[in-house]
Write a sequence for this structure.
């Protein structure tokens, strides 16, 4: 079966959603919700700590293409170049920090199932337009985009930039409909921007009033949980943000 070789131009084009009003969702448990409110920041974990063992790595066929291009060189040189290529991508994985979101016009039953459909789940909903505005203050440090899902048996990416490897996944994950923001710590970031680094990630200060358009609680949540979420938002000065129960 013939696959597709995605060029850099194609990848750039596919990053941006078709409409500014596209809804983005972040499903989480209540403790992470509290952490976001108290820190007034989004937490970006390090990419190499994700469960997906191929997170941020090129598709296998991209490796094969590199090997083919090096095959005309003496074996010792070929081996050295491949080792450098592999080491480079492993290093980039340790320098990339990612915030993952779900892109959908409606709620997702599967996301509620994964993040707490009964008592301790939260979904915050924003739009692509609002999400993008939240990162404009950071001088282009962040790259935003939706994921491209590939058939790893046939598809590959032109090895022009490590950036695009963080916006592609195996098609097994396509149900996630993922949108993400990625920060590459390739240099010492400007401390005046307020990044707060930890061993496994970074807190990025965000205007939560701009980011959060609606807060949803799980479809099976009791009334007391609704009241708790409303009171929690008020305690952090965000009482104007609407809270509603899932329509699922």
């Amino acid at each position: 079966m013939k696959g597709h070789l995605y060029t850099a131009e194609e990848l750039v084009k596919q990053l941006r959603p078709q409409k500014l009003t596209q809804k983005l969702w972040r499903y989480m448990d209540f403790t992470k919700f509290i952490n976001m409110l108290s820190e007034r920041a989004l937490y970006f974990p390090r990419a190499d700590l994700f469960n997906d063992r191929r997170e941020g790595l090129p598709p296998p066929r991209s490796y094969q293409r590199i090997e083919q291009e090096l095959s005309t060189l003496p074996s010792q040189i070929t081996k050295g170049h491949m080792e450098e290529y592999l080491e480079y991508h492993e290093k980039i994985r340790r320098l990339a920090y990612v915030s993952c979101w779900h892109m959908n016009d409606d709620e997702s039953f599967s996301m509620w199932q994964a993040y707490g459909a009964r008592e301790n789940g939260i979904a915050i909903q924003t739009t692509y337009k609002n999400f993008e505005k939240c990162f404009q203050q950071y001088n282009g440090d962040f790259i935003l985009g939706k994921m491209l899902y590939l058939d790893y048996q046939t598809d590959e990416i032109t090895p022009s930039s490590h950036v695009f490897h963080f916006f592609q996944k195996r098609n097994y994950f396509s149900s996630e409909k993922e949108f993400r923001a990625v920060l590459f710590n390739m240099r010492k970031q400007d401390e005046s921007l307020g990044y707060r680094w930890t061993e496994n990630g970074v807190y990025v200060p965000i205007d939560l009033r701009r980011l959060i358009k609606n807060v949803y609680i799980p479809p099976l949540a009791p009334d007391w949980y609704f009241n708790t979420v409303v009171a929690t938002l008020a305690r952090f000065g965000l009482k104007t943000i609407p809270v509603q129960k899932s329509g699922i």
